[in-house]
Fold these 4 entries.
Entry 1:
Amino acid sequence: MKRIVVLAILVIFLTMVVGCNSQKKALNNSSNASTENNKKSNENINNQLKEDSEMEQESKETIAIYKDVSTVEAKELIQNTEDLVILDVRTEEEYNEGHLKNAINISHELVEKRLSEIEQYKNIPILIYCRTGRRSGIVLDILKKNNFNIVYHMHEGISQWTYEVEK
């Protein structure tokens, strides 16, 4: 009888030891999986924070100004803005009839093809105009799309210009 009791106690003890070991392994496996998931989650969060930081840095570096201005405001810009580039987007014939002093002439139809000629002005104030403001509005969109940062659009056009022009 003593042998049976000792044997029963031994079986119960071994069952408990083996059972506890299995639970430990299961907990360890679960814990390892949880740790892996946490690592991946932290990695994703860190990547997102890095991307957000880079985007924030880029936005700080490239603050763009696109503004419609009247002919009066354009005159003030010409008088008060050092290094202002003036871009006349009318045809060559219209340009020759009269244009703003020091204006560069590139027809609105050719601006995209001739961007290389004005790329050096991406971070310099540019005043664009045409006869009525329609074509220069089209060019404004082209310049925005190509990352020109400071663009003033004389939305009334030169037809409303009451100041001196060059021929």
Entry 2:
Amino acid sequence: MRSDPDPDWNETLDSLVSPTYEGINYILLLLAFQATIYYKCRERNEMKHNKTSRSHTQLAHTIDKMIRSRIMSLLTTRTRSFEVSFSSGSGQDYTKFG
């Protein structure tokens, strides 16, 4: 991944639309970008309607936690899918040993 983000909005969007990154890096970059936009909009609405705001550190922690949760949910879903496809139709479950 590139080390310095480009402050030009059009340049940033162009780099997200045309995948210049490989595989999982591109997916994680999109996820981080989407989460950041979502939580920034949510923060703006909280400020507008409820007159409350969070610090940048709290917002970064929330975004980090959401990304980690999303990754874990994908890993858990993939593991369950593997376990279901690995058990046979005869009732023998090959995912349990012993």
Entry 3:
Amino acid sequence: MDFFGYPVCKEEYAQRLREMIAEKTAFVVSTTYCSYCNKAKSLLDRNKIEHSEILLDTLNANDQMEISNCIYGRNPRYVPIVFLKGEQIGGYGELMQMQSDGSLQSKFGPSADIV
């Protein structure tokens, strides 16, 4: 994945993120207190899209910084960040738009029903 090619991203963290993202169909970067993170995960659940997550605020300070460096580089930092089939699609708004326009269903087939 070229996404983790930021100069501030250490390779060991990039590799672990690649592995985590590849484990499930969807991967969500979130925090325990983010309502839009919960909405994104609920939307994935309703559409029967298997997902995993990393909760940034539960990590030690160093890991949180290094993982954030890989995900965001020097760009603005926000959650959730959603990956579908290894591709970063954006946040909750982009995920909701995909559901609304049918592209979520076309990407995942009939198992991703609009609820």
Entry 4:
Amino acid sequence: MAHSWLSIVHAVAAVFAIIELGLTAYIASWWGGYWSFDRVNFMIFNSVWSLLVLAYVGITPIYMTSIFHKLAALVLNVITTIFWFAGSIALAVAFGHSGGTAAAAIAFGFFLWALFMVLTVVDALESLRSRGHNAPATSNKPSAYPGV
């Protein structure tokens, strides 16, 4: 049950990241392609980064389980959440007064921040629930060396 709604959240985040990539690429093209704000460039990076993280977190545990690590997925989700929050705030400061494409890019940035926050919280709770369960039920403590 939990995996079905998480898959939907992953898919929605991927679609929103593609939309955000298009919006911020359009904003970057406003200056003729020769120059753009660092904030816009960072949001383009966030979109590409998010698609890579979603590929690792969503697809790797299903098809390539040998290279998937739960702690790495948690760290990637935390970093991506921070990136989206910082980038959305920076974009809102730069283009908060304008409407249209910039406002849509800001809104989708905050939507992606919220989606990655949900994924991070769920991943952290899963990590906390499953920690320490890999230990064997009976411990085989080595006995002290009896001497000669």
